[in-house]
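Feature request, filed as a ticket because there's no other form

It would be nice if the structure record came with a short human-readable summary line next to the tokens. Right now we just get the raw output. Example of a typical job, pasted below so the devs can see what we mean:
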Amino acid sequence: MEKVTIATVAQRAGVSRQTVSNVINTPDVVREETRERVREAISALGYRVNQAARQMRTGRSRLIAVRIEPARDGINGSVLDRFLHGLTDAAGLAGYRVMLYTADGDDAEIATYDELLNAYDLDAFVLTSTHHGDPRTSWLAARDVPFVTFGRPWGAPETHSWVDIDNAAGTAAATEHLLAAGHQRIGFLGWPAGSGVGDARREGWHRALGPWGPVGEATDGVESGAVAARKMLQNDPPTAIVCASDSLALGALQAARELGRECAVIGFDDTAVARAIGLTSVSQPLAEAAGRCMDLLRELLDGHAPSHPTNVLLPPSLVVRQTA
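Raw output as currently delivered:
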């Protein structure tokens, strides 16, 4: 098999070899449309950067680290698995490798940062599941360790670059879809107050609905969702429920079936389970989010990041199926 080179990639993408080199090393100087064309050529041809030569030239390990989340109920835990898949793809195209680690809680994760930085020549971290009072970002920043986050710094000063999904826009679109279908009493089933993501999803429902509707709260899970939904469906029940996750939506469907209630249900995250059972759900552009995280990280590592943090907010989309 003929060796794939930068010249081969350039020919396939219809660009110069310098442009291919720029996409690999300094992507911010190349137009987005051209970057995508070159990346598609790199992927199609299976081109891989010579890591040993690059490390000698740049002094970098080309290694980034990210935490892998626990499985939880096996439904919504798969969401970050898809993000990790996208991040690994984007990192590979950029000539980086991804190291995965586990940690139970913020303190354990910070301790893991210390261990990893002492044991490996890491270039940077990608943080996920950001939340109010998150101590991880300040720990890394205080030590000048490069990082970006998938998730905004809820309530904290925006001192680092991040990529996030517009959660409020997602539930607003779900609620507007139900209003257009003729529903007037639309409930919301979400997580207890205080979760940045959960609060944003509730805010989108309220913004679209106007007057408050019935609200149920539950920890994320099918059974806890079913318990909360049964209470909502007892007296003066809603004809539709927007849920903060697919797990809660499955619980709501279970409760409606047990009580013999007709109730439209919309979930959030468009998991494989949602697709399998025909659950209408809000889909997150996880592959795009991962790619944008990698772009921001490369700008940071290459010294081309702007003087102020870059924030990227991506719109989700509603996938309509049988349940609403």
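Something like this underneath would help us a lot:
Residues 51-59 have pLDDT under 50 and may be disordered.
The CA atoms of residues 246 and 274 lie 7 Å apart.
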